[in-house]
């Protein structure tokens, strides 16, 4: 360690006489320049430290001093600055400390109390010579700097230079301890007459949206550069007293102290959201990540007296709020409330139930008929997943799929669904129902997996179906992140003979720039546009446009969610090719569908209605 040429000493509760006597003892000792300044104990810590930016703080057990309280205040503000407690009066006739909490203890017991509270050293004024006093002051500074250097390695994030999770939890625990009122007053952190706690601080968790996309599109090095730039921007929009840490790959935490109303906290949160919206220049392009924030305030009523438990609880509450903010679309902030806590508990319960369903394969396939509007015949089915909940009821498919995608369970589920649907198609072929097509939905994670195309090829080969009987339904979001790769995957599937459909067309990006370059066979019109066919001409315009677009591009149009005869008649009039919906047949298990396939009449006359739809390929009899 480098030799200390100067040590700045801040004397807390240092009377002018004490400061003078201490200066005389230190002057010229150990070849160090000793710079002394004093602070009245009534000053706030921030004001006191602004006096001299000290290397060492000396707290004296004087007549008016609550030494332990002062020690806690100093360490709470600047834990990196060593504190030495000096015991005893300057005047020889008064050698006993007057602090009521420790005046009946021995010197050894007092030393243990001081060191246990975080002090660097404890000295008895009348038992330490001048040379020894200077040496122990210098050693306190050296030990503190060595500890800070070690802490920097252990508690700092190597990429941004900010503190890490452990560092932040330590800061938060100290802030929680400081927020507890010493007496039952109505000061900050105390109950008001209505019983409501006034906040003294807040924890903000900040998640960087779309960082994963930047890592995948431009490489992790560019993603790291974005994190570094963002951390600098965050620091600039906060007060010097606020604490910031990087606690995860794309997650930051901010500790605010001395805030007493939601409006002030909201202003800080809005600034953090604004910082997230500032574009980052990456390879000639402006890329925006945005941020999502969750906020919890302290103290709170469930404080059980343990700083560590409270700190962890605050983090969990902020995380719950952040999750709900993400569910609302992100790029915003939410305060934790009991209602949010209930929603997160429900979410965790749902996640566990879906995980158990995936593990036990508690899901089945139902099949919904697709009808050719020209021939009035059922030409195929769409395989739709149904979730069998533990209580025997059918769960919401969208919830099941959402959880499966979030936790990557969709890869195994999707593979099993594809194989089961193809096996069912093969079974119908053996029963004599020839020429049916099977439509299967594909998730984004399935499509992006390098094993997807080989997996499809393997299923077709093992099950023994004609590739052109299989139709894979993709949504626009599946391929927009990497159009070039997506086209290669689709072309590989088309070369195999598999048909491709663009699902829910019109609800996503619906960009005409890419549509004519995609090797698609069919456009599926979302049910929301089909429902508008019963409205005004303007309301039905989107469905009309999609059908016309499909015709111009040589694609087949498929309408979903047909529920009324009026909708069906309108689709026939517009020249739509295929329709499916409750009017023509609900999703049903295979055993319920088979009698329908077997017993329908072989021909139909008159208008197209649910009662005169016939099977595309009638059952072949011996």
Outline the structure in words.
By secondary structure, the chain is of the alpha/beta class. The chain is 43% helix and 19% strand. The protein has 21 helices and 22 strands. It has an 8-stranded mixed beta barrel, surrounded by 4 helices. It has a 5-stranded parallel β-sheet with strand order 2-1-3-4-5, sandwiched between helices. A 5-stranded mixed β-sheet has the order 7-8-6-11-12, with helices on both faces. α11 packs across α12 and α13 runs parallel beside α15 (452-463). The longest helix has 26 residues, at 130-155. Residues 90-102, 183-197, 303-307, 599-606 and 614-622 have low confidence and may be disordered.
| Helix content percent band | 40-55%
The order of strands across the largest sheet is: 13-14-16-17-18-19-20-21
Mean pLDDT: 81
Structural class: alpha/beta
Q: Give the overall shape.
A: elongated
Beta-sheet strand percentage? Answer: 15-25%
Query: What composes the largest sheet?
Result: 8 strands, mixed, barrel
Low-confidence stretches: 90-102, 183-197, 303-307, 599-606, 614-622
C-alpha-based Rg, rounded: 36 Å
Number of helices: 21
Number of strands: 22
How far apart are the first and last residues' alpha carbons, in Å? 96 Å
